[in-house]
Write a structure and sequence with these properties.
The chain is an alpha+beta fold. The chain has helices at residues 3-19, 32-36, 68-76, 109-120, 123-132; strands at 25-28, 42-47, 50-62, 82-93, 99-102. The protein has one domain (3-132).
Length: 134
Amino acid sequence: MSDKEKWIRVVSNLNKLTQDRSLVWASEPPTEGLRERGVENTYTARYGSWILRLYSYNVEVEATTSGLVTALVYAASSRTKLITVRRTRLEIVDTFQSPLWGFPEVSGLEDLLRSAQYQVADVDGFVAAVLRGT
């Protein structure tokens, strides 16, 4: 198993634990440093003695060109085109919310974030209540 495959599997297992409610996430306000990076909310969970923190943030990246017309337009421009993309970050943090280690960016992080948000918002409870009429 490659290193990348290992981390994809770890994230997939965390997502399954989240969906099974074996891993319980809580919504936390972002630290000042994260707020400055545009983070609106963070989610934390305990797995054994480790504290996990999950959040999404914006980052500017250089736009990639595809197609002849796009390539010609950018070739005629002396400026680099930047676009904003949303990234998801999973970290191990200490009790003060200081990051100790960041997981590599692998597929499945966005799914884990959505599962944590779904769990914290208690969407299943909401749906059940609406269907019951209460």
